[in-house]
Amino acid sequence: MKIGVLGSGSMGSGIAQVAAAAGHEVVIFDNHASAMDRARQKLQEVFDLLVEKGKLGREEATAIHGRIHFADRMHGLRGVGLLIEAIIEDLTVKKAEFEQLEDVVGPDCIMATNTSSLSIAAIASACKRPERAIGIHFFNPAPLMKLVEVIPAVQTHPDIVAQSVELMKSWGKETVVAKDTPGFIVNRIARPYYGEALRILEEGFADAATIDWAMKELGKFRMGPFELMDYIGNDINYTVTETVFQAFYFDPRYKPSFTQKRLVEAGYLGRKTGRGFYSYAPDAPVAEPLKNAELGRDIVHRIVSMLVNEAADALYWGVATRDDIDRAMTTGVNYPKGLLLWADELGVSHCVETLDRLYEEYHEDRYRCSPLLRKMAREVAKFYE
Ligand SMILES: NC(=O)c1ccc[n+]([C@@H]2O[C@H](COP(=O)([O-])OP(=O)(O)OC[C@H]3O[C@@H](n4cnc5c(N)ncnc54)[C@H](O)[C@@H]3O)[C@@H](O)[C@H]2O)c1
Fold this sequence. Notes:
Layout: E1 3-6, H1 10-21, E2 26-29, H2 33-52, H3 58-66, E3 68-70, E4 82-85, H4 91-105, E5 110-113, H5 120-124, E6 133-138, E7 147-152, H6 158-170, E8 174-177, H7 186-189, H8 191-202, H9 208-218, H10 225-232, H11 234-247, H12 258-266, H13 293-316, H14 322-332, H15 339-346, H16 348-362, H17 371-378
Parallel strand pairs: 1-2, 1-4, 2-3, 4-5, 5-6, 7-8
Antiparallel strand pairs: 6-7
Helix pairs in contact: 1-2, 2-3, 8-13, 9-13, 10-11, 13-15, 13-16, 15-16, 16-17
The chain binds nicotinamide-adenine-dinucleotide.
């Protein structure tokens, strides 16, 4: 099957590389010729590096690279069996492209969007045959990140879901199916990793270095929340939180933080600008954590309980299955453990007590416990029996 990719930015070129590595002929089209030139150059560099590092033989790299073609007009996408759209995150633009593309790609083509935050139903509604539209959400960088979220819209035909899942598996991806809800699985459930860390910082319980130390050293997360926000970019991370917050009708659980907003306004975007929560100047002093085990355990327990609550709530509202929720967080954002499994290990009632204690303290809806978690605590139930 020939694959079409619309948009040759970071995601589009990464997705094209994955599809070509899986043996497909791929056609990319971008409406900015300069973006296609950059993608061509970037792909050349990527394949050279893979050969240099011994990850690919020269012949294999040349063969994969040779399967990626750039079209100079949208009509170059004619005949593709799957089209993945990865253009700017703008609903009006995406809908206009879907409407136009439908006449280009032919009646049997699966039309997928890689959107991170828009409604798949809204994008699909631009099609005359919305039943073939679907969300196929890759993570950045697409060739390295294992996870793909497949998101059917209300209009999507079940066969399209099954075909998309099979295809992504054949590309070597861990594939989970998510309901068309804000943030899908990962970008929803991960919010407290940043939000609760920011809250602890703002309340002055601990500084960024101490929270990062606790989450890495005691929580076994690969990166602490603040170094991760600096790595992702505070502008990007803040926008995702704000988008999820708005999409959930301003549910206080996802309320963004002024602290992070001010950093964005100041241009302290993180690594890419040399300064975020930390300074990345060559002579900057290293921020030293306060390695207090009791404080560290409290921090980990508070953040993990909030994450568990999100995961349980996503399960409660049918966003995804138990296994897909746990797999999404371990393969999409490299959490050390699935959150529902973690809840079992900590004890569901222990998580409920922590959330209730926070709720008692603040009387904020942000700390409300998921009905599922409370019911399970009452019944002394586990997610994995
Ligand atoms: N960057 C990420 O971490 C990430 C992760 C998952 C999903 N996404 C989603 O993937 C999509 C693309 O993100 P990105 O980071 O690759 O963006 P990007 O800005 O790197 O690339 C977007 C590309 O789309 C092109 N483009 C814009 N409008 C177009 C149009 N009408 N027709 C054809 N090409 C057009 C631009 O020229 C640009 O090259 C967005 O929907 C984003 O939400 C991004």
